[in-house]
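Student: Please help interpret what follows.
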Amino acid sequence: MAARSISSATISFGLVSIPTKLYSATQQQSAISFNLLHAKCSSRLKQQYICTTDNEVVPRDQMVKGYEFSKDRYVVFSEQELKALDEKATQTIEIAEFVPLEKIDPIYFDKAYYLAPDKGAAKAFHLLAEAMKKTGRNALARYAARGKQYLVMLRPVDGGLVMQQLLYADEVRPLADVPLDTSEVKEPELKLAIQLIEQIATDEFHPEAYEDTVKKRVQEAIDKKVQGEEIAAAPTEQAPVQIIDLMEALKASLGESKETAAARKPAKRAPRAEVTKIKAGKK
């Protein structure tokens, strides 16, 4: 099924303007969600807002937005005041600089979109993508849409461009906030850990090799319910035995990895001499 464009945007840097179309790169609608129902009659519930002072339902036309600047104290904004503060949606992806991809920590990555050239912009679009690929650089840009200004990164991929929405610096918690106890790394332990990594290392990422087993299990349960079948509760799994000694844990992990690797290998053929004996015995 062909993707449907969700918006238009123009890539801009210097005197260059490239009209593009935006496509969502993810499929959030594939997630399974449930509705809240009344347990007595299974009717759908609707959300209401209750005033904590008057203890009454407040309709939407009587609601205003407020910012709590101190405990139980608010400054109130009207919809018109908030609208005036919105960023003007220029639909322009304004490139500020080009940086190497490895210089941008993936912790800043947020939602992703595909970009495709609009009518008449294919040559300029692919020229930019190829130039970025050759230089090994990605573009950092500002993008104004839906009343907000976004920090985005453009990166070339498979002949196209991905617009990766980024988090701002104040939206990412510094690692210094996390308590990290120091510990000495011993050489024998390090060698075993490296050996374990090398045994299950691959050179490419294959996302199709992984699936959401919880989602699959939930969907199967839904299908059974729809068909009127009863669902038996799964037995509780026992917690795995903890190995306190790190070296023993690494050695045990290496043993499991070797067994897994051996199970994946096809059985070896019998030597030619043995095959001859077997055949001779049959005669």
User: Anything to note?
Assistant: The longest strand covers residues 148-157. Strands lie at 7-13, 16-24, 65-70, 73-77, 92-100, 109-117, 137-145, 148-157, 160-166.
